[in-house]
Design brief:
By secondary structure, this protein is of the alpha+beta class. It has 3 domains: 124 residues, no CATH class; 126 residues, Immunoglobulin-like (Sandwich); 127 residues, Immunoglobulin-like (Sandwich).
């Protein structure tokens, strides 16, 4: 009897659980149906292929994964801006129906409507008519085609319908992929400069062959990549000369990919604090801001590499410093302890030697004196104050020659692998002018045993 009672209770429990689950499922289904009913349109955003906006007359069409503007002009669309309109249909909903009487349309700004949006999807189309804002300003009044209902919905719909051509068109100054850039040519008031990418490094090819300042070149490429048009001035110019673009003040040419496809930016006259410019592959003339133009007009000094050594300081395991006809040579052992090898042999103070490698590895030119000096004597480099050589496993990493002082805080300097004379901070002298006594570890004194300590 007890067993039957337990069985009955278990059965009741199972039926109860099943009932609760069924009710939950039904409630969930009702919630989903309610959400679908509340949505502006039950449409998959990925299926939207066209959008019409009135009164602007804008018509955009999806071409594969890209958006194209086909009216009022034909041009590329700004993907992020158009996608923002499309994404709105994921969350926008009808908040509340306020009227179903067509006679009430005028009081809601719907006769005539303030704006219209038509979306084309799956071979069908839907139309939204946009009216006034609600008295609180939190919503707008709207209506769908095929229904008399006036409802409240998000103000994002109004801002989407009111988009202008400039808002939705592609505003990139020059379209390219950064990874595709293989070389860059600059022509401006400072001269002609050509740069080539060598692996991850940039090199100047013209006017002379030198290492380029990678940080400066990347700054230019990144700025060019992110730059946006401030205003379109002329969609189909008959005479680019009036904008200073027939003979540009500056030209930037990018060569892309293995086939060296060329993208050219022309920069013309200044106008109200901005500059006329044009992508040579497109017709429109547009304006760009002056700060962008300043970056696009580099000089030779800005483009060339200011770093005078190319090694990691931790790789240095031996060095030589020549001062006043004396050579001090030091070598590091496998435990990273420095030892003086010349002119005496003794343990060195690590904290005195290690900064030398760091100072040379981080050495930067503050000025470029000459790339083909007729005489080194005038700079004190025929008989340098100091010569420093740094090695790794017997290989020379860097040789620097320090000449006379220039002013209060600079010295002339050249490297062993270049003819060029540079100006650097005179702090390099403080690191290189080492004193044998100062860098040496004092040898440990052996204490002699006294008679008392020996027990005698």
């Amino acid at each position: 009897m007890k067993f039957k009672t337990t069985l009955m209770l278990a059965l009741v429990f199972v039926i109860g659980v099943a009932g609760v689950m069924l009710l939950n499922k039904q409630d969930k289904k009702k919630d989903e149906e309610k959400k679908i009913e509340e949505k502006l349109f039950n449409v998959d955003k990925n299926k939207i292929s066209e959008i019409y906006l009135e009164p602007s007359g804008i018509h955009v069409v999806k071409d594969s994964s890209e958006w194209k503007i086909v009216a009022p002009i034909k041009t590329e669309g700004e993907k992020s801006s158009i996608d923002a309109i499309v994404n709105m249909f994921n969350w926008a909903k009808t908040e509340r129906v306020v009227s179903s009487d067509p006679n009430d349309y005028p009081q809601f700004g719907l006769k005539p409507p303030k704006g219209t949006m038509i979306i084309v999807h799956d071979g069908a189309s839907d139309t939204l008519f946009i009216g006034d804002k609600s008295p609180t300003g939190s919503f707008i009044f709207a209506r769908k085609s095929g229904s008399p209902d006036v409802f409240l919905t998000t103000t994002s719909l109004q801002s989407s319908v009111e988009k202008k051509l400039f808002d939705l068109r592609n505003k990139r100054v020059l379209g390219f992929e950064k990874k595709e850039v293989k070389s860059i040519d600059f022509k401006n008031r400072n001269g002609f400069f050509s740069l080539e990418k060598d692996g991850s490094k940039w090199k100047l090819a013209k006017p002379i062959k030198l290492n380029a300042d990678a940080s400066q070149v990347n700054k230019i490429v990144n700025r060019l990549l992110s730059a946006r048009v401030k205003e379109y001035v002329d969609e189909n110019p008959k005479n680019v000369g009036k904008y200073g673009l027939a003979k540009p003040a500056a030209t930037v040419e990018l060569f892309l990919g293995e086939n060296r496809a060329k993208k050219t930016l022309l920069i013309g006259k200044k106008h109200d604090g901005k500059y006329y410019a044009r992508d040579d592959s497109r017709k429109p003339v547009f304006l760009v801001d002056s700060s962008f133009v300043n970056v696009m007009i580099p000089n030779f000094t800005k483009l060339r590499n200011k770093k005078l050594a190319d090694f990691v300081s931790s790789a240095v395991d031996s060095l030589q410093i020549e001062i006043s006809n004396t050579t001090i040579a030091c070598k590091k052992d496998t435990a990273n302890q420095w030892f003086i090898k010349q002119p005496v042999q003794r343990k060195a103070k690590n904290w005195k030697i290690t900064p030398i490698a760091s100072a040379v590895a981080n050495l930067k030119a503050e000025g470029f004196v000459s790339d083909a000096p007729k005489s080194l004597a005038r700079y004190g480099l025929a008989k340098p104050q100091v010569i420093g050589r740094l090695y790794s496993k017997g290989k020379l990493l860097s040789e620097i020659l320090v000449g006379k002082k220039h002013g209060d805080k600079q010295v002339y300097l050249k490297t062993g692998d270049s003819k060029s004379v540079y100006l650097v901070k005179d702090s390099i002298l403080k690191e290189l002018k080492i004193n044998l006594k100062e860098i040496s570890e004092e040898p440990k004194k052996v204490q002699k045993k006294t008679d008392a300590s020996s027990g005698k």
